[in-house]
Amino acid sequence: MFKEEKPLEGDALIKEVCRRIRVARSYWDAHNNRACRREREQALLLYNRLSKQEKEKIPQVLRVWLRYRSEKYFGSHRTPPGKRKKKKK
User: Fold this and answer.
1) In contact, 16 and 8? CB cutoff 8 Å
2) SS (H, E, C) 36-72
3) 44-81: per-residue pLDDT in tens?
4) pLDDT in the model for residue 52
């Protein structure tokens, strides 16, 4: 019934990385941090599968957002979501 999907490669992988980064940016602009974090993590996983030549095919604006700007807010030095303690009255 279900079509088995092959792992993405080449141009399809590049296209999917770009799509996921754009989706993460749209979530970021909408202040939806949880969804943004999830999409960004998926984009990073796929991005890390690319070769150096393939990474250069990703538009620079998207690469910069993925690696630097979003790292400032979602990096490992930040407190993970859901760990904040609520104050008791």
Assistant:
1) yes
2) HHHHHHHHHHHHCCCCHHHHCCCCHHHHHHHHHHHHH
3) 999 999 999 999 999 999 998 888 766 666 666 666 66
4) 93
The two structure tokens encoding residue 87:
């104050």
Residue 72, CA distances (Å) to 10, 50, 66, 78 in order: 29, 23, 10, 8
For 30, the token pair is 């909408």
Q: What is the spatial distance between Cα 63 and Cα 35, in angstroms, rounded to a whole number?
A: 19
Map tokens 């974090």 to a residue. Answer: 37
pTM (2 d.p.): 0.73
Task: Give every CB contact of residue 86 below 8 A, 6+ residues apart in sequence.
Answer: none
